[in-house]
Amino acid sequence: xxxxxxxxxxxxxxxxxxxxxxxxxxxxxxxxxxxxxIREVARPDxxxxxxxxxQGNKTRPVAESFAWVHSLDRFRIAExxxxxxxxxxxxxxxxxxxxxxxEDSKSGVAPRDAPAxxxxxxxxxxxxxxxxxxxxxxxxxxxxxxxxxxxxRLLFEEMLREGLTLDTLSMGxxxxxxxxxxxxxxxxxxxxxxxxxxxxx
Length: 201
Ligand SMILES: *Cc1c(COP(=O)(O)O)cnc(C)c1O
Description:
The protein is built from eight helices and eight strands, in the order βαβαβαβαβαβαβαβα. By secondary structure, the chain is α/β, with parallel strands linked by helices. The protein has a single domain (2-195), classed as TIM Barrel.
């Protein structure tokens, strides 16, 4: 299982320190902060993942600077990323974000629409579709946390049976990592438990 260290809000020095301890993959939520930090850290051996909401007018810096995007939920955005991905770089690795708890306010494709969207995205030349990502609604106990991760895994397995080639289940953060691992996460995204509490003001 892979560990993505979510370094959003933390300065480049924190990334360097984690990298010195052997961490290779880092996650960022905000385009400008991420691009600036990637440039400042300046370590080509690190792998940068964009995990935040992505608008159409911000796709270019993401396509040019990141190795992965976890938060893809619209074909139009995928198409732009594919067009803007520099030819000198490998294809952009992406996960579809699924609105697994069915929250009105949350981004992510509805589970029933995920297979069709995945098939369209898989056909784009400069995109490599790798799997699914979700951020479930908070739950009170372990069983409540496991349920949405279980649904995401079942959707993932259904899509594999339909012939899509996927290998990544990006699920689990500091507060629900145990539940996600129990349900088969292949990549957990952890910020607070590595770097400490972010300033929430
Ligand atoms: C901030 C964030 C994380 C990490 O959250 P923690 O609770 O700090 O571990 C993981 N995934 C996404 C999409 C995030 O925005």
